[in-house]
Every structure is written in structure tokens, then in C-alpha cells.
Amino acid sequence: MYFDLNIPIPAPSGSAGQIQAQSNKGKGKQAQAPPAALFTPAQVAAIEARIDLLVHLGYSVLALNQTVRSKVEPKSFVNTLDPLLRQLKQRPGIVYIKRLTITLDEDSEKGFGLTNAQAGLFAPYDILALAPTTEASFALACLTHTQPSPLSAHIIAVPLDVPRLPFRMKHTMVRAALRNGAVFEVPYAAALDSAAKRNWWAAAREVVRVTKGKGLVVTSGAAEAGDLRAPKDIGNLITFLGLAQNLAHDAAATTPKSLVLRAQTRKTYRAVFSEPRVVIPGAPEAGPAGPEGAPLPAPAEPPKEQSHGPAPSDGTAHASEPSGTAQAGQKRRARDNGPDAADAGPTGEGGRKRKKGKNKDKS
Questions:
Q1: Of 1-15, 43-57, 129-143, 193-207, where does the model show the most confidence?
Q2: Are 222 and 8 in contact (CB under 8 A)?
Q3: What are the residues facing 155 on neighbouring strands?
Q4: Strands 59-68 and 23-24
Q5: 156 pairs with which residues across the strands?
Q6: Which of 17, 71, 205, 277 could bridge across to 12 with cysteines, CB 3.0–4.6 Å?
Q7: Rounded alpha-carbon distances, angstroms, from residue 5 to 217, 222, 353
Q8: Rounded to an integer, what distance in angstroms lies between the CA atom of residue 281 and that of residue 137?
Q9: In sequence order, which residues have a C-beta less than 8 Å from that of residue 215 and are 6 or more positions away?
Q10: Dihedrals φ, ψ of 270, to 5°?
């Protein structure tokens, strides 16, 4: 199973994507109308062509990417992926994922909308990505917004097509982001562009060097169908960045799968997977099921040990074992009669025989 988590979706044409709530002085605010078909048939046909080619190349999980280049505000923000998914045709075995990428620049780095008050705007999206452009925004993305929360960022998109990285990727920030479960994106579309090819190789090698090949996700990021490549071709391409074959395979298959599973934890408490079980008070709990679904028989109880009855109240002991009072009496008589009585036993016959032998010797 191969993943492509970056299929850029162009901005919808027309004024339908800019629907906002209008307010009048005497009537107050009016309800916001739901957006109609935001994309033209030509745009939908171009997106369908890219998806068909990706399916032909062997990809089965596709992420449609909506990019926001300004501060997210409830009045102006519009989710363009939900109406697009209703226009796309269904393909058996293909999974669509909704991704939102927020560009962090000098204007939006201090408050770009990722607050708990606006969590409802980001709830429909499956993956949140941040594209920092300054040193401060990169530190904010790695240290703050990768922690488990309903607004946790899953992907950090580093600009690889610029002449030089706008910030320095420090090891402490990168390790903190990887420890929190975030990944760094390497889109390969710029490597096929003759103008940005040189910048891409230099920046991509820096990302691989800092991350040591761990926590990388390779995506297409291609706006045209001619820039798409098969997963095996991409694996061979990124090996020239210094990655081993197993790490190159993980960047296209294993790491994206773990990322999609972690993205589901945004809807749970403190990013914890749980399997709730309904317990009805007073009802017996069902035991483990057998191979055919039938409950297993209850284990047999061990046999109870037969306990001897209490000692008789008259003070007499059982025949099998003497009571404590009888034993104490025998020891007291043996101590009073001396060593002869101890040898003679309880009857004292041995003592009488010795006395008779002594009398015969005296006579």
C-alpha cells in the first residue's frame, strides 16, 4: 500500500469560494449559505486525470491538499475539499484524505488561527500541515504545534524549491518534533523542474542530514499529471539523497501509514487510542468466545478439602491423634518419675521389673 499525501488542489474559480456572512444594521447577521459547486468542470476533469494516473501507478491512499496562505478567520475561511469530494467519482479500493496546509509567515506566525476557539474549522480535515517560512515560525511548529491536541500538526513542510532555506534546522527542534510524532515532507515535484532542481537537491540533502533519514514522508506535490512518478521510481530517486533502500521504502509506505493512524488521535482525549466496552450493571459479563463464536465453558472449580470437625466438647481426643491435654499429662508424669518412668512408658511395667531384679541381688 503506497501513499501520496500531497495532491495540490487549485483555488476554486468564481466568487462561490468567497461566500461570507453578510450583516445589516437593522436585521443583524444572516446565516452563511453553504457553498455550491466551487470547481468548474475543467478543474474537476484535471483533478480526475491526476487521480487516475496515481491509481494506475499503484497508489491507494490519496490526500487532497488545500493550502491557506493567510490567517485562518471564521468569516473568510471556506472548506473547499468537501464539495470537491462530492464531485469526484468513486473508485473502489481508493481512500481519499483531506489535508489542510497553513503557510506560516511574518504576518501569521503569532496568530494564524490554530486556537481552541476555532477547533471546529479544522475538525473536518484528517491531516494538518504547517509550512514555516521564518526561524520563529519553524520553532513554533516544531516545539508547540506538534504536541498531542485537537489541533496537533502532523506534517512540517520545509520549502525545498527556494535558493536557500529561510531558517536553520536545529537538531534540538527536529528531535522534539520527531519525538512528538510529526514528520518532515519531501515533495519530489521540484526535483523534476529544471529551474528549481538545483535548489531542491541542496535543501533535500540538508533535511535528510538533520533527520538522519527518520520521520520522512515523500509526496508528489505535483500540479500537473506529467510530474507524477511511480513509488519504485521515487524510492530510487531519494536514495541519491543518502537514504538506504529500507528507509526509502519506509518514506513512501510505512511512515505515511503511521502518520495517518496518528492523525486519528486528534479526535480522542490526549491522543490515546481506546476500545470502549459497554458494561450493563447487574448483567453477567460475557466470557471469551470460542473458535466458532460460542462462549467457552467455565473452568471447573477445584475440589474442596474435607475439613475435620471441631473437637468434642467433653475434652476427649480422637483416636488418631492425641489431644494437647493428654500429651501434657504424659510429659508431666515422665518428669516426676525420673528416667525409669520415661523408659517404661505410660504403664510403668519396666520400672516394676527392675525393682524385682534389685531385690533378688540384695538377697
A1: 43-57
A2: yes
A3: 129, 183
A4: unpaired
A5: 130, 184
A6: 17
A7: 8, 11, 110
A8: 52
A9: 177, 178, 182, 183, 184, 255
A10: 55, 35
Interacting residues of 174 by C-beta distance below 8 A, sequence separation 6+ = 142, 184, 210, 211
Nearest to 171 by CA among 207, 144, 141, 202: 207
DSSP letter, residue 319: S
Rg (CA), the chain: 41
| Helix intervals (H) in the chain | 41-57, 81-87, 119-122, 135-143, 171-179, 197-211, 231-238, 245-249, 255-263, 324-337, 339-344, 349-362
Place of cell 528416667: 339
Name the grid cell of 299.
Answer: 473452568
Angle between helices 135-143 and 171-179 (to 10 degrees): 30
Question: What is the grid cell recorded at 265?
Answer: 488521535
What is the per-residue pLDDT across 48-97, written as a single tens digit (0 to 9) for each? 999 999 999 999 999 999 998 877 877 888 889 998 999 899 899 999 99
At residue 118, the 3 state secondary structure works out as helix
CB of 206 closer than 8 Å to CB of 219? no
Any idea how long the chain is? 363
Q: pTM here?
A: 0.68
Give the separation between CA 363 and CA 357, rounded to whole angstroms. Answer: 10
Q: How far is CA 273 from the centre of its chain?
A: 6
pLDDT tens digit string along 268-312?
A: 655 565 555 667 777 665 555 554 444 545 555 555 555 555 555
Do the Cβ atoms of 177 and 155 come closer than 8 Å?
no
Residues 3 and 257: beta-carbon distance below 8 Å:
yes
Contact (CB, 8 A) for 51 and 88:
yes
Matching residue, cell 459547486:
37
Distance in angstroms (rounded) separating the CA atoms of residues 65 and 125: 10
Taking Cα atoms as reference points, which of 78, 81, 38 lies closest to residue 62?
81
DSSP string of 170-232, one letter each residue: -HHHHHHHHHTT-EEEEESGGGG-TTTHHHHHHHHHHHHHHHTT-SEEEE---SSGGG---HH
